[in-house]
Amino acid sequence: MEWWVSIPKVELHAHLNGSIRNSTLLELARELGEKGTIVFSDFEHVIRKNDRTLSEVFKLFDLIHVVTTDHKTITRITKEVVEDFAAENVVYLELRTTPKRNDSIGMHKRSYMEAVIDGLKSVSSSDLDINFSCDDLEKFSKYQTKKRIIVRLLLSIDRRESTASAMETVNLALEMKDMGVIGIDLSGNPTVGEWTTFFPALKFAREHGLSVTLHCGEVPNSIEIQAMLDFLPGRIGHACCFQDEEWRKLESYKIPVEICLTSNIRTESISSMDVHHFANLYKENHPIILCTDDSGVFSTNLSNEYALVSSAFGLGKMELFQLARKAVDFIFAGNEVKMELKKVYESAARTLE
Ligand code: 5GP
């Protein structure tokens, strides 16, 4: 097994519908093609394409949502995505997804999330144990012989949504707090929507104990980036198009950054690895976490992101292990989960010595 695969890892930026296996996506599309709902060959062509600009990625998501947005499929893909992360030794996963409505099949935001939770419930098997609800960690700690993964959920607000719709998602997250929902994400096409539309819902979320992470600086937009940083989110994702003043704010506020290398390069948000901001942030000892973003869409996985850092920035095994371990400090779950994960890293460190 490659070394990157064997170390315990923490994934904090993974979108459910971006992390679907290609094989599953093609199988689902073929079924809809046979029913005449979509033209399979058009779909296949888009899925198999490797490089996409950021705006093409959002068109792809609209296509993916056509084949995935029913309860049964959401349950299936949730199970598979968690199994895939666990298979490469991700020990803690914050999985984010946008609760959706589809009136034609009786889906509303809550039933969408219940389908996600059904997926989590179906993960446990003879060799894998999952903890996803906030109250059964003690029982979980006892299964030392199986592979184990702790999963928490973030509900995403899509930038196409209105303030009322964003508020609906936040209220749903609050209702589902005892089912493993711990935070809110703002994502979706960064050229759509205004920060002021989402701000009331995000503020309300934080005031009511939910953690907040924001997709920030995927496109140049100084006013929005600065407003987002001044909001003091718990973390931000990407930070690709920052100006000097924004870097200064980020560093003085010490906001942790979810770094998605493959995604940034594939979407051309960053032109090449040698100019990626990972290098500076790492050198400055700024809090960073390596993440996949959309492992299915970008054909990557978290182990691969660690391997990339090693080859592109020359980090050795010990430095990579410390990077993985440090991510525990930036998770949104509480102290009990942090302590559990620290034990996992302590025991892994002993095998490295
Ligand atoms: P879902 O929320 O449907 O499970 O995951 C797919 C959704 O996540 C996309 O429709 C989009 O709103 C969001 N998303 C996935 N990847 C990215 C990304 O790289 N940037 C942004 N801004 N949003 C993303």
Overview in brief:
By secondary structure, this protein is α/β, with parallel strands linked by helices.
Can you characterise this structure?
This protein has a single domain (3-352), classed as Metal-dependent hydrolases (TIM Barrel, Alpha-Beta Barrel). The chain contains 16 helices and 9 strands. By secondary structure, the protein is α/β, with parallel strands linked by helices. Strands 1, 2, 3, 4, 5, 6, 7, 8 and 9 form a 9-stranded parallel sheet that branches. The mean pLDDT is 94. 43% of the residues are buried. 49% of the residues lie in helices and 15% in strands. Strand 5 (181-187), helix 9 (195-207) and strand 6 (211-216) form a beta-alpha-beta unit. The structure holds guanosine-5'-monophosphate. Guanosine-5'-monophosphate (5GP) binds at residues 15-18, 61, 97-98, 156, 158, 187-188, 190, 215, 218, 263, 293-294.
What are its keywords?
353 residues, 16 helices, TIM Barrel, alpha/beta, binds guanosine-5'-monophosphate, 9 strands, single chain, 15% strand, 9-stranded parallel beta sheet
Write the layout of secondary structure elements.
Blueprint: H1 3-6, E1 9-15, H2 22-35, H3 40-48, H4 54-68, H5 71-87, E2 90-97, H6 109-121, E3 128-131, H7 137-141, E4 147-158, H8 163-175, E5 181-187, H9 195-207, E6 211-216, H10 222-230, E7 235-238, H11 244-253, E8 257-259, H12 261-266, H13 278-283, E9 288-290, H14 302-313, H15 317-326, H16 335-352
Parallel strand pairs: 1-2, 2-4, 3-4, 4-5, 5-6, 6-7, 7-8, 8-9
Helix pairs in contact: 2-3, 5-6, 8-9, 10-11
The structure holds guanosine-5'-monophosphate.
